[in-house]
Amino acid sequence: MSWIENIKSGLSITTGDGKVYNPLYVITTKSVDYNVAEFEFPNITGTLVKRNTAKGARYRFEMIFQGDDHIEQFKAFELSNNDQRPWQVFHPIYGNILLQPTSLIYDPTGLNNTKVTGDLIETITEEYPKITIDPKDSVGFDVVNVNEIAASSFESLVIPDASDVR
Description:
With 166 residues, this protein is an alpha+beta fold. It has two domains: 3-122, Elongation Factor Tu (Ef-tu), domain 3, CATH 2.40.30.200; 135-164. The chain contains three helices and ten strands, in the order H-E-E-E-E-E-E-E-H-E-E-E-H. The protein starts with a helix and ends in a 9-residue tail after the last helix. 11% of the residues are buried.
């Protein structure tokens, strides 16, 4: 699809509550930060920087609700944003993205429009870190469990008598 066709397709925002909004928009910037660690050493000039994966991209959004009902549109949009689930967004330039707003500013001072600006961060859906058990610890836990099961089984199945004592 050409960039002209992309632009004509418009912006579509599905908020966490499932409502879809198609406001006008202004093409804005996207920024990407990276997970980095900086190391400085005594008597060494400079810094060693180890870069890892990218963090969630940050977007600056500018949307415009216009028309006779623009106040009702932006109020409905504002109400939808009480839902804490992320937005599913189709952006004509950036494509399909999952975003969480970090701030939104509603500006209804236009005569026939309300401008909504905000900062949004691309989000992932899974929570990390995933908790795993170290294999060495797992073996230790398994030994304790087997010993407890064996003792319980012995206790319930064996009936001692006087000849068992030496």
